[in-house]
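Batch manifest, entry 17 of 40.
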Amino acid sequence: MRDLDSLWMEHQGLTRRYLLRMGALGAMGLALPSGRAVFADDKPDPLAEAIRKLEYFTQPEAFGTVERGTPIPYTHPVEKLREVGMTRETWKLEVIPDPDAPAKMDAPLSKELKTALDFDGLMKLAEKHAVRFPKIMTCNNGGSPLGMGLWEGVPLRTVVWLAKPQSDLRRVFYYGYHNDDLKQRFQSSLPVGRVLEDPPGEHPVILCYKLNGEFLSGKRGGPVRMVVPEAYGFKSVKWLQRIMLTNAPYANDTYANGNNDVDSWMKTFARFISHPATVAADASIPITGLAQVGISGLKKVQVWLHPAEQALSPDDPYLNQGAWRDAEILAPPKNWAGGLPEGKLPENVRGFDPKTGEPQTWPMRYALAHWAVVLKDVAPGKYHLRCRTIDANDVAQPLPRPFAKSGRNSIQQVDLMVTAK
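Output type: C-alpha cells
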C-alpha cells in the first residue's frame, strides 16, 4: 500500500489548482501535522481523498487474471511443474523451424539437440541485453485494464539470432505450456519484422522474467512469458516454452478462431476509478479515473454529465455532440507503488531520463495515466456520467477504431443521483 501522507503531499498542488481554478470546494485550510488537509469548514477534501488512493503500478498479486488450461498450469504439484519445465530450474525454450513451413536456420535451439535455452542461459543474456519498460496489460475483449506493471526481459530478437536464421522467414509464432492436452495449447504470432526491428520510439518484444522487480510467479506467467509492448494480452503468451520460425505468410493465433483482430494495436480509452453514486445538490462531486494510452497517445480526458431523461441524438452514435468538459491528467507520481522498494524505479527504465529519472514524455504510450475532475452546482436529478479520451491525433473515443474484437474502447457510462439540499 502506498504511503497516503506522501501521496497527499504529492498531489496537494494539483488539488489546490482545482480549488483555485474551479472554485469547487472553497478555500483550502492549512495542512494538519499528519499531512492530511482540511478545508475552511473543517470538512475533508473529497478530491484529495480520492486522488491519494490511486496507485500507478499494480501489485503483481492484484492483477486481473485471464488463464487457460484445465487444470490451470501453475496449480500442478511441484513435481509436475518440474517435469514440464514450469520452474526456473527446469525451464527450457526451443527456437525451431515450423515443420509445416520451415524457415532455414543453422543452429536451432532444441531439446532434442540439447541446445535449448535454459533459465541460467537467459540470465546470462540478461547481463548484457536486459530491458525494462512500463506496460498496461489489457484483455482484447475486456472492458478495463488488468493491471499496470514494470516488465523486464531480454529482447526476443536476441534469442532468435542465437538460432542463426538464414532465409524463408516471414513470421514468428510461439506458445506456452497449457497441460499435456494439445487441444488446450494457446499460441500467438508476430511478423518477423516486428521481432527483429523496433519502430521508432517503440520498446522491443521481450522474453519477460520479472514484473515490478520480482521474478514472475506462475500466476503471472512465469518462469518466462512473452510481452509485446503495443499489443493486447493475448500476444503476451504465458508459460512460454516454444518459438517457431515460419515461412507461412499468415497469422495462426488461437484468437483468430474467435473472430478477433489478431494484429490490433492497443487503443486509447478512459475509465472511471471513483465517483459517488448519490450526492446532495450543494456538494461538490469528486471523480477520478484512468486512461489507457494506446498507439495514438493521449491529449485529453473529458467527462459529460447528461440528464438521464434527455434522449440522445440518433444522428450522433459516438456522442460527439455532448457537452464534454476537460478533466485534469495527473502528473507522473513520485511513488510508483506496485511493490517496488520505496516505490522507486530501478535504473535504466526505457522511456525515462537516466539522469533525472523522470518520464521523457507524459502520458506514456502503452501505459496508464490517472485523471481527476470536480463537478459542482449540479441541479437535483438523475444523470448519466460518461468519460472519454481525445488522442494525440485529436480523435475522440471510441474512434478511430470503435469495433469490438480489436480491443474494447466503448464510452463508459455510470449513473449519478443528485438529491435536493
